[in-house]
User: Which sequence fits this backbone?
């Protein structure tokens, strides 16, 4: 209502942000767990005085640096860019409410960058003690980044008392903060094991390869039980209505739930197989498959978490289409075309009825629906429904369809929008 | 329809705007320093082989080694000003970004490619043949990213061009109608090349003081780049000044007076910097150049306020005080600074200088 709408059609409906966010979060979680993996594996190498393991740590650090520092950091910037383009109002709330949380996270990011560069380039230059301290500093800063970001991400799903009091700390330490923190911490350790498989499978020395693959398998398997416990805790901490939305009311989330359930045993089984001595080619293939399963697993979780917020972008505060819950009556009374700032056709006539319908669609629907794209394609959904069924969908938004916001405009605008969908999207 | 009616309503800030602006200016200054070093040194590494042939070693080897650091730092130090800019000017910045959404989002992809190209350049031995392709990719993409940033700033500061949205809502707008866009961009690039040259001189000067003997030629070369690029930049600067709206330097207004003083101050501080560089006194040259960058950063802040004055004043921002997160941030900032200094000192004390 407040900002212009980027008319993104094929890649709309959350597809763009889903792709960037899942890639980023997977790498970013690796940046946390992988930091612990590096420093503990170096401890192991120093304790055993094993140059083979130390060399593995060095190679793994190079891979880690190139992946997390470039793709990880820049996809993080990418998420920021993307959300500000797709939902500037929600981004503005997050930025203004948590500016100093973001700022604090940035200071940890500075420490991460400096310590990781130093860690990688000083294996032979620093004393063992100092090198290990630098490794621990890296991990500490990376985990603190997770701590801060976790507060902001979970605020969107469960803002808790913030909705009433607008207090920073109420929003930050929201009802799912702690379970989500443990959930993500254990998951980041699991991801460290998955990436450990990848670099270990490229080791030429057979003995060392087997040792490091088994070592990486422990990183996957040991935290898995704790991870499952944290998952249960996370679900238990969700307000009941969100639990119902995710697990019962949203047909779009069923595939993600299935994927999450199927990938759990696959990861455990794969971890056990990786501990068996295998030929180089097979272990590399398996390592790649495991990494992909981990990606799908984590992607499914993120998809569920994002989906669970519907019909809100900030739960109980701002709907997906950026209309504040408290403003719904006002908008219904005066109309979307009057209330929204970036509207050309405020008065509807026979000449501009389609253009006005398109503007209503942009403001009210485009944040969740693509046009002809892979996610929530409006064309498919309109074609699947008869005109009468389409009317019924509008009548049940926000109640029998709790994952959709109630229609925000007035009755006339509803007819204009339905007319636009029937005329332009049914083709 | 007028542009004023399109300006989104801003959200409330949690501390007085002065603190946020202080942080914006300070972190922008840090970002500019890192960006100038990154882009300038990269530009010199890319262009030097065109007239020096293969006679670019070990200069390009050192630039290749340090470029990934400077890119990482530039991006990192760009995050903070972008954050504070959003808090103070989000209603303008989000709008301009949406108007040029496709270009704006492409920055992420361009940066990833340029960053990886810089790493390939670092990891490969060839600094003249194929290496030129990689450093060229890095530099050209970074130049492209800079142009997109300049465009966003231009659209952000000129709500009167926002009406173009109604003829193109798909995020393909740029603002080449702004007469100040190109000179502003060239002014930034020339300044980056100048500071990049000075950074090269400083780098080899530090190595020299630690016992290296291979730096004399590159100190001279760096100073030469600094001097020539600065002289050229006077031309771009005057072009930029001429392209600005009169209100920017109108002596009848406080903003105009302050802007004028800052510009004169920048000229007054860059002159001793160039003079010191001519006599190879690199440390004072660098110190004066840093003062110039700071003054230019402040001038840029004033210019933004002047552009937006018909539409917005910082004191208009709604303000609901919550200072405790700010204190946590300051403590984290102090702690992080301490840790970074400790780590750098540890490495500095342990590092051997390769001859």
Assistant:
């Amino acid at each position: 209502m407040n900002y212009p709408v980027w008319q993104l059609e094929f890649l709309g409906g959350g597809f763009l942000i889903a792709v960037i966010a899942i890639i980023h979060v997977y790498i970013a979680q690796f940046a946390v767990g992988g930091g612990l993996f590096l420093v503990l594996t170096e401890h192991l190498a120093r304790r055993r005085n094993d140059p083979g393991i130390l060399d593995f740590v060095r190679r793994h650090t190079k891979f880690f640096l190139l992946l997390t520092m470039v793709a990880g950091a820049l996809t993080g910037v990418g998420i920021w860019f993307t959300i500000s383009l797709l939902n500037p109002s929600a981004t503005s709330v997050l930025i203004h409410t948590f500016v100093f949380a973001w700022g604090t996270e940035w200071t940890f990011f500075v420490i991460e960058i400096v310590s990781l560069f130093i860690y990688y380039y000083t294996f032979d230059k620093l004393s063992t003690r100092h090198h290990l301290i630098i490794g621990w500093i890296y991990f500490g800063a990376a985990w603190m980044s997770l701590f801060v970001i976790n507060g902001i991400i979970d605020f969107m799903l469960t803002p808790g008392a913030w909705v009433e009091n607008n207090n920073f700390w109420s929003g930050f330490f929201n009802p799912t903060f702690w379970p989500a923190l443990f959930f993500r911490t254990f998951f980041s350790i699991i991801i460290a094991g998955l990436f450990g498989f990848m670099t270990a499978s490229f080791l030429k020395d057979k003995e060392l390869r087997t040792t490091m693959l088994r070592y990486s398998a422990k990183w996957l398997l040991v935290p898995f039980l704790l991870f499952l416990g944290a998952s249960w805790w996370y679900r238990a901490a969700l307000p009941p209505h969100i639990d119902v939305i995710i697990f019962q009311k949203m047909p779009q989330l069923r595939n993600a739930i299935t994927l999450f359930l199927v990938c759990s045993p696959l990861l455990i089984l794969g971890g056990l197989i990786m501990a068996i001595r295998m030929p180089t080619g097979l272990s590399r293939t398996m390592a790649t498959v495991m990494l992909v399963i981990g990606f799908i697993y984590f992607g499914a979780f993120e998809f569920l978490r994002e989906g669970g917020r519907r019909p809100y972008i900030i739960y109980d505060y701002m709907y997906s289409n950026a209309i504040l819950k408290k403003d719904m009556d006002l908008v219904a009374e005066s109309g979307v075309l009057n209330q929204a700032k970036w509207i050309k056709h405020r008065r509807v006539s026979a000449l501009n009825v389609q253009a006005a319908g398109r503007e209503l669609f942009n403001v009210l629907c485009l944040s969740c629906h693509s046009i002809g794209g892979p996610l929530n394609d409006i064309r498919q959904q309109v074609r699947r429904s008869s005109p009468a069924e389409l009317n019924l969908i509008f009548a049940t938004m926000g109640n029998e369809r709790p994952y959709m916001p109630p229609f925000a405009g007035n009755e006339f605008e509803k007819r204009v929008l339905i007319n636009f969908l029937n005329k332009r999207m049914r083709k | 329809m007028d542009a004023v009616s399109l300006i989104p309503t801003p959200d409330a800030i949690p501390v007085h705007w002065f603190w946020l602006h202080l942080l914006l200016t300070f972190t922008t200054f840090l970002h500019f320093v890192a960006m100038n070093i990154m882009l300038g040194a990269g530009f010199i590494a890319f262009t030097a082989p065109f007239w020096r042939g293969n006679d670019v070693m070990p200069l390009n080897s050192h630039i290749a080694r340090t470029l990934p650091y400077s890119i990482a730092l530039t991006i990192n130090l760009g995050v903070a000003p972008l954050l504070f800019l959003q808090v103070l000017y989000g209603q303008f910045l989000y709008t301009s970004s949406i108007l040029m959404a496709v270009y704006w989002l492409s920055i992420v992809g361009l940066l990833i490619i340029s960053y990886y190209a810089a790493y390939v350049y670092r990891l490969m031995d060839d600094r003249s043949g194929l290496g030129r392709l990689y450093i060229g990719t890095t530099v050209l993409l970074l130049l492209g990213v800079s142009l997109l940033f300049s465009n966003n700033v231009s659209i952000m500061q000129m709500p009167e061009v926002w009406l173009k949205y109604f003829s193109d809502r798909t995020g393909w707008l740029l603002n080449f109608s702004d007469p100040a866009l190109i000179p502003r961009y060239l002014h930034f690039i020339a300044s980056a090349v100048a500071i990049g040259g000075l950074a090269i001189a400083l780098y080899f000067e530090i190595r020299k003081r630690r016992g290296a003997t291979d730096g004399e030629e590159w100190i001279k070369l760096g100073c030469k780049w600094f001097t020539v690029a600065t002289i050229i930049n006077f031309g771009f600067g005057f072009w930029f000044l001429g392209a600005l709206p009169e209100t920017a330097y109108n002596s009848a207004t406080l903003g105009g007076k302050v802007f004028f003083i800052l510009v004169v101050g920048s000229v007054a501080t860059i002159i001793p910097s160039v003079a010191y560089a001519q006599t190879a006194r690199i440390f004072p040259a660098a110190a004066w150049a840093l003062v110039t960058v700071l003054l230019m950063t402040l001038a840029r802040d004033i210019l933004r306020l002047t552009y937006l004055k018909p539409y917005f004043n910082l004191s208009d921002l709604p303000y609901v005080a919550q200072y405790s997160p700010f204190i946590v941030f300051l403590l984290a900032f102090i702690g992080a600074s301490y840790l970074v200094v400790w780590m750098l000192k540890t490495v500095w004390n342990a590092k051997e200088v390769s001859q």
